[in-house]
Amino acid sequence: MPAEALSPVSTLCLSILHHGExxxxxxxxxxxxxxxxxxxxxxxxxxxPALARLxxxxxxxxxxxxxxxxxxxxxx
Length: 76
What we know:
14% strand, two-stranded antiparallel sheet, alpha+beta, 43% helix
């Protein structure tokens, strides 16, 4: 996928993931409270589809981590 085809939210996700693994929740938190809070106001409804597209395009990897008493979480 060419860089110009990436949405702003996809670019935000890749920027945050460049520094290490994160869940969608952690990406949202970083975009609201962290160094990326000045760039874009990304909602969970835009972050998770962007991560799914990035994974489908092979730009990020994803693994599931089981949690006791809670749903599995995806780590990108």
